[in-house]
Structure formats: C-alpha cells, structure tokens
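thought: user wants a sequence for this fold. calling inverse folding tool.
action: design(structure=
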C-alpha cells in the first residue's frame, strides 16, 4: 500500500502514462474501491466505483471502458 490519498481513502496503486494518471483508491469506512482518473491533456478528472462482482484490477487497467457504461463520480485531483 502506498501513501494515504486523503483522510478517508487509501491509495492501493497508481500509474502514470502519456499525461494520464490512474489511481486505485480504497475507502475503509465503507469498504468501497474507486478508480480515479486525471488526464493532464484534456484536464478531465473523474472517478468510478468498482461494483460488486467486478475485479478492481480490471477497472484499474481499463477505466475508460468501465466509465463509458455508467455515471462518473466527481473527483478532485
């Protein structure tokens, strides 16, 4: 586990490539996993919640594919 993202979330993993940062976050208080995406090129930032039955690593590796099929959560980088 890496550094704390905020007081309420913990960063489990992150990656950065071509101006896009993807972070895998966990909220221990409600046991929710979130994938947060920040695109420096477009200045777009969003987060998607990993749903029951989904593999967090799949959402982390392909966040745009999952985001296309559901509402995005507000996310401040």
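)
observation: tool returned 77 residues.
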């Amino acid at each position: 586990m890496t550094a704390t993202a905020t007081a309420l979330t913990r960063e489990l993993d992150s990656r950065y490539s071509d101006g896009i940062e993807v972070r895998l976050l966990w909220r221990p208080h409600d046991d929710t996993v979130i994938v947060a995406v920040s695109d420096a090129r477009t200045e777009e930032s969003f987060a998607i919640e990993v749903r029951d039955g989904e593999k967090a690593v799949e959402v982390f590796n392909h966040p745009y594919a999952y985001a296309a099929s559901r509402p995005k959560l507000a996310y401040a980088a």
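thought: summarizing for user.
answer: Here is the designed sequence. Residues 56-61 form the longest helix (6 residues).
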